[in-house]
Each structure stands twice: as structure tokens, then as C-alpha cells.
Amino acid sequence: MIKTTTCGKLYLAGEYAILNPNQVAIIKDIPIYMTAQVTPSEHYSLSSDMFNYSVDLTDDANYALIQESIKTMANYLELKGKVLTPFSLKINGKMEKEGKKIGIGSSGSVTVLTLKALALFYQLHLTKEELFKLAVYTLLKKGDNGSMGDIACIVYESLIYYRSFDRQRVKKWLLEVTLEELLEKDWGFTIKPVKTNLSFTFLVGWTRQPAISSQMIKKVQASIDNHFLSTSKKEVNHLYKALETGDKAKTKESISLLSQLLETLHPSIYSPKLKKLKNATHQLDAVAKSSGAGGGDSGIALVFDEESTLELIKRWQKENITVLYQEKMRGFHDK
Ligand code: PMV
Ligand code: MG
């Protein structure tokens, strides 16, 4: 039996801008996992704890992404001179709390998970770049129009710096070239792990108000202009450099600026609760912002001393904001 997992993710910076080509974002892996188990079987059987029934390979709307991922794997196996043979695939880990989605996963994570599990099952050695490209190929075929930053983070399972590719161009290639050629092409993205050299506590505050990214994007998209794009890119690059060089002041400044930029982009991003989450850092050695599409879900904070951490958590609790995850990040000089 094969068993594997994929992590969750949250945006630190670069949301919305990253939907455009050649923009940048910083995205953090969150170690809350989804699990897949694959066993050989007489017949194909797919089950997910999201739904209370199993399916085979007959098209099913709920299982569409898993089934499309299997089609991708079948194509890829063919390239390697192998064939798809029946298996049973079980997926667990809804990334929910109190029956509400917590917004750290994405519909895309199930694609990465399915491909990763099947690659192990068929003993294929996929590089991270190949896994990323196969997942994106699958999602583009299904009409997903996200930036794929979530996919990059979930594949690399690390805090990453992501530079986006031109999705329209890759979509065109989908119709024109074979999968083999597509995998060989340079899509023009960058994904690199960020080596933070700054010590802080990373906190995730959950508003308990689920938001749907695709709906948020529809609301916000028309407001994205060149000024927003160039400022976001500049500040994400500053943040990247500040994290790597351990520059606390610049880290705080960039995150604040990026937060303000999102706040002015569209009023629906900072929900009243996300505003409270951010303002709770007042006079603490900390900086906070909304994460991802906003409108609910979670916000993040970087806190630089123990006292501020305890105080921020207390202030969040008063506002009914739950700490979903916390992690101590250490600069390499402090280790
Ligand atoms: O809310 P999340 O974690 O799904 O993040 C969405 C980020 C956007 O930039 C708004 C959309 C995207 O696909 O990058
Ligand atoms: Mg979200």
C-alpha cells in the first residue's frame, strides 16, 4: 500500500497581483495535511471523506478533479511506456474545523495529492517541477483560473517565493503540443524556497468566516491596475530580501505596505473581522495582514517577542479569532 500526504498553504504576500503573469508572491506551507492511500484492486475505486459515496472512473462532478488527475497520470504513464492499472484511492483530511472550511487548502491540493500518490504507486520518480507542471496541466484543463501559487507551495512543502507564468500562453500550448513537449517547455515561472534569517513567531488567526476565493476574485479583479501590480511586486521583493537577510524593520514595513495595498484595492478584502485581526497588533512588536483572497478565512501575523505573542493571542481571542496554527521561525544565526 502507498500512503502520502500534502500540506496546506497560506499567502504571506502578493495576493491578487500574482494572478497576472510575471508577478511575485510569498506563500507559506502549513503542516495540516490531506492523506491519500492507494492499493492495487480489481476495479477502480475512488473515495474522499468530502463525500459519502465512492466512484469508479465514470465521470462524477464531485470527483472531477481527482478523475482529471488520473487522466493526466494515464497520459504521463504512456510517455513512460507504462499503463494505468486498477487501484483503490482513498483521500482523507478535509481541512475543516467545526464543519467549516478553514481556507488553508485549496481545491488544487487534491490534484497534487492524487498525482503524488499515483506516481509513488506506479514507481515514477517525478521531480517537484514535473509534479507542479502536471498539476497545473490538470487544473488548466478543468478551467481553474487561479495563480497556481497554492500548487507551487503545496508541491515544494516549504515557504516559497513564486513568480507566476503566463497562463494564457500555457493554455494555448495545451491545445497545440503533446504532454511530453509541454513538460519540456520553459513556462517562465520561478519557485524557490525562502531561507528566512529572521526569528519570529508565525501566527495564523482564523476568522471562522469561510470565504470563496473564486467569488472574491470576480469581485476584485476589475480593480487590479498597473499601480497595484508594480507596487505589490516591489514590496514582495523587498519582503523576500528582508526575510533572507533578517531585516526585521523592513519585513514589518513591507508587510504593512502590502496590507494597505490590499485594503485600498477593494473594500471586500478586509472584512470587519480581518481589520480587527490586523489592528490587534497595535503597539506590539508584530505585524499582521489578511492572507489570500480575504473576505474571511484567515490572517497571518509575524510576532517578534514572547510578550507580544501572548498579548496578540489574547486580543484575538476577545474578537473570537482562533489561532489555527503557530510556528517559531528561527534565523540561522540564532540556531
Ligand atoms: O484565499 P486563498 O488562500 O485561496 O488565496 C487566493 C489568492 C489569490 O491571489 C487572490 C488568488 C490566486 O489564485 O492566487
Ligand atoms: Mg482564502
In CATH, the architecture of the largest domain is 2-Layer Sandwich
Give the amount of beta strand, in percent: 15-25%
Tally of DSSP helical segments: 11
Poorly predicted spans: none
Unique bound compounds = (3R)-3-hydroxy-3-methyl-5-(phosphonooxy)pentanoic acid, magnesium ion
Description of the molecule:
- The chain is an alpha+beta fold.
- The protein has two domains: 2-193, Ribosomal Protein S5, domain 2 (2-Layer Sandwich), CATH 3.30.230; 200-334, 2-Layer Sandwich (Alpha-Beta Plaits), CATH 3.30.70.890.
- Helices cover 40% and strands 24% of the residues.
- It is built from eleven helices and 13 strands.
- The chain has helices at residues 64-79, 109-121, 128-141, 149-156, 167-176, 179-184, 213-220, 226-245, 248-265, 272-279, 306-318, and strands at residues 2-13, 24-40, 45-48, 54-55, 87-92, 96-97, 100-101, 160-163, 190-193, 200-206, 286-290, 298-303, 322-329.
- Strands 1, 2, 3, 4, 5, 8 and 9 form a seven-stranded mixed beta sheet that branches.
- Strand 11 (286-290) and strand 12 form a beta hairpin.
- Bound molecules: (3R)-3-hydroxy-3-methyl-5-(phosphonooxy)pentanoic acid and magnesium ion.
